[in-house]
Design brief:
242 residues; Muramoyl-pentapeptide Carboxypeptidase, domain 2; 7 helices; globular
Length: 242
């Protein structure tokens, strides 16, 4: 019976996700104009920035955080866009050095409780943000390319908590990239267990300097993002720098 209820809940959430995405497409129309901000898309420029400030180095998460799990949704079709947004087979993801250092401490604390982190997305090349904007122009859920995003700067991460023993995600009430009020931090019409799970993620991330985004329980970023340049460096180039 429990499995049947869970399956019905999952199907309902998927239907809501598809409907909300289609609604965004209809409401936002076809105007995709934006002003391109200053960004770094040349490898030599990025390397010079890192030379001047080592904190700007992009670090592959698994290289510093043992046991962290990836579920990189945009390298699959299992995402709200229903299409590949990253090259198929992408199996690396990056953040700036201070964000990785902080995330490492989050992982260590959770590990003591038999828990760990699963990553849905971290660094996102600017050109991918443009593709998002061409289809979904709602700034609650997709960054306006005129400003770029924390993901483009390598300081934002989308994630959840898993049980180490089973690898199963804690129940957060919705899946990743759910565009309903249920995904908001201030939505409290949820079971005690779900609210406790969300609070565990939020409090642990906050303890190590991450700020929560109010409309997405999975989205966190480190402060002072403006000090980091908007990047449009592809994953292959970053991977070669490991």
């Amino acid at each position: 019976m429990t499995n049947k209820i869970s399956n019905r809940f999952y199907i309902k959430q998927q239907v809501l996700l598809i409907f909300s995405t289609l609604l965004f497409l209809f409401v936002n129309g076809q105007n995709t104009s934006y002003t391109r901000p200053a960004l770094t898309d040349k490898w030599d420029d990025y390397k010079e920035q890192v030379k001047n400030d080592p904190a700007k180095k992009m670090v592959e998460l698994k290289s510093m955080i043992p046991g962290i799990v990836y579920d990189l949704r945009y390298a699959t079709v299992n995402n709200f866009m229903r299409r590949l947004m990253y090259p198929a087979g992408t199996n690396t993801t990056f953040l700036r050095l201070p964000a990785v250092n902080a995330l490492q401490k989050v992982q260590e604390e959770l590990n003591k409780k038999g828990l760990g982190l699963k990553i849905y997305d971290a660094y996102r090349p600017y050109s991918v943000t443009v593709k998002f904007w061409e289809l979904v122009k709602d700034e609650r859920y997709v960054a306006n390319p005129s400003r770029g995003s924390g993901h483009n700067r390598g300081v934002a991460v989308d994630l959840t908590i898993i049980k180490l023993q089973t690898g199963r995600e804690l129940n957060m009430g919705t899946g990743f990239d759910n565009f309903t009020d249920t995904a908001h931090h201030n939505f409290t019409q949820l079971s005690k267990d779900i609210l406790e799970n969300r609070d565990l993620l939020k409090s642990t991330m906050g303890k190590y300097g991450f700020n929560a985004y109010s409309d997405e329980w999975w989205h966190y970023s480190i402060p002072n993002s403006a000090k980091f340049e908007i990047l449009d460096i592809d994953f292959k180039k970053l991977k070669k720098d490991l």
